[in-house]
Amino acid sequence: MTERHQVVVNDEDQYSLWPADRQPPDGWRAEGFAGSKDDCLSHIDQVWRDMRPRSVRLRQDDAAGGSLGGAR
Fold first, then answer.
1. Model-level pTM?
2. What DSSP state is assigned to residue 52?
3. Which domain holds residue 51?
4. CA–CA separation, 47 vs 17, rounded Å?
5. Rounded to 5 degrees, what angle do the CA atoms 17, 20, 21 make?
6. Residue-wise over 51-66: b if at least 16 C-beta within 10 A, else e?
């Protein structure tokens, strides 16, 4: 029997797998995709394009925008 998993995501936009028959742990929420482990990993590969945590992305994007804007 194939164990079903669900894709979960946290506030930092980091993805993981969690058993489909269990509630995600605190700080994580169901992303909406469920299936076999391989199906879930394939889905994560498609949607998780930037591995940096959300807070790091925002900080780096702000810094890049600020430095680019000042150089003009």
1. 0.76
2. S
3. 5-71
4. 14
5. 140
6. eeeeeeeeeeeeeeee
Give kind and range of the element (H or E) at residue 16: strand 15-19
As for how many domains the chain has, the answer is: 1
**One pLDDT digit (tens) per residue for the chain, 72 residues:** 679 999 999 999 999 999 999 999 999 999 999 999 999 999 999 999 888 888 888 888 888 886 554 443
Residue with tokens 């804007």, as numbered in its chain:
69
**Who's near 53: CB < 8 A, 6+ residues apart?**
12, 13, 14
Residue 34 has φ and ψ, to the nearest 5°, of -140, 155
Residue 2 has what DSSP assignment?
P
Q: What are phi and psi of 56, to 5 degrees?
A: -70, -45
Amino acid at residue number 43: H
CATH number, domain at 11? Answer: 3.90.820.10
